[in-house]
Amino acid sequence: MIGAIEAGGTKIICGIAEENNVTEIIAEQIVKTGDPVNNIEQIIRFFPEHPVDAIGVGSFGPIDVDRDSKTYGYITNTPKTAWKNVDFLEALKDLESPIYWTTDVNAAAFGEMCYGAARRTNNSVYLTVGTGVGGGVILNKELLPGKKHLEIGHISVARKKGDHFKGVCPYHENCLEGLISGPAIYQRSGKNGEELNQEASVWDTVAYYLTESCVNYALSFAPERIVLGGGVMHQKHLFPLIHKYYAQLMNEYLPTKDIEQFIVPSKLNNRAGMIGGLALAKKILGGE
Predict the structure, then answer these.
(1) Which catalysed reactions does the entry list for this protein (predicted)?
(2) Is residue 190 within 8 Å of 169, Cβ to Cβ?
């Protein structure tokens, strides 16, 4: 048996599955993200009741993924102040299982590569657009390594003509997250995304900036597929706009044939992080 922990900003999900049937979750526990001591106690109680051979953990961040760092395994400078500088990985050692430690978006990227919209590719980019914007990159079927995890939701984008929106990111005026996240859509329109009709002008702006990011990712990582997930991307009418703008912005520098198969919606949706965590646990055990 294998396990996964998807530690999100609003809820923490623990799940288990059989190693040879990752997408079928046998048991699951969902708790509201709150006090870390209580949350960790709930996690620790869940897994002894469901013994596993390995656990994949995808956590909200920022987190320290540098194995040579003194704070490896920590949730670091998070806006969730109760979790700031919590040694999450150390707390999980009581489970006595090998653990794969990464970000929640990395886990989702790995899940989409193994079982979702990026299946049968070697190189892909996954981006989630919701309360925040974040993503992961797969190169040669492995998560892109580094001393720090990627923050591709905070890349700078060139302003769309006529857009003078200040942005909601407290750090960057022109970053992707600050311009198109759920809170940005609300501030732009006065409504949440699910309350807006398809003709609302904000969607054209969101699609444009998303396309800019896709062009940047295509040029930087040469992916075979870019997968867009998260709550905002439930607006499926965004994809034709993105495909149209991609051809314009790329301007034939790279081929844009079969664009509908290049920039695609998530197939695993809100299960991407959990299934990705299980796939990472399977990877620890040597599974494909």
Answers:
(1) D-fructose + ATP = D-fructose 6-phosphate + ADP + H(+)
(2) no
What is the C-alpha to C-alpha distance for residues 160 and 126, in angstroms, rounded to an integer?
A: 23
Structure tokens at 267: 């197939």
Q: What are the angstrom distances between the C-alpha of 244 and each of 131, 218, 260? A: 25, 16, 10
> What tens digit of pLDDT does each residue of 36-81 get?
999 999 999 999 999 999 999 999 989 999 999 999 999 998 888 8
- DSSP at 79: S
Q: Which pTM was predicted? A: 0.95
- Least Cα distance to 119 among 34, 23, 232 occurs for 23
For the record, the structure tokens of 148 come out as: 């720090």
Q: State the angle between helix axes of 202-221 and 238-250 in degrees (0 to 180), rounded to the nearest 10.
A: 50
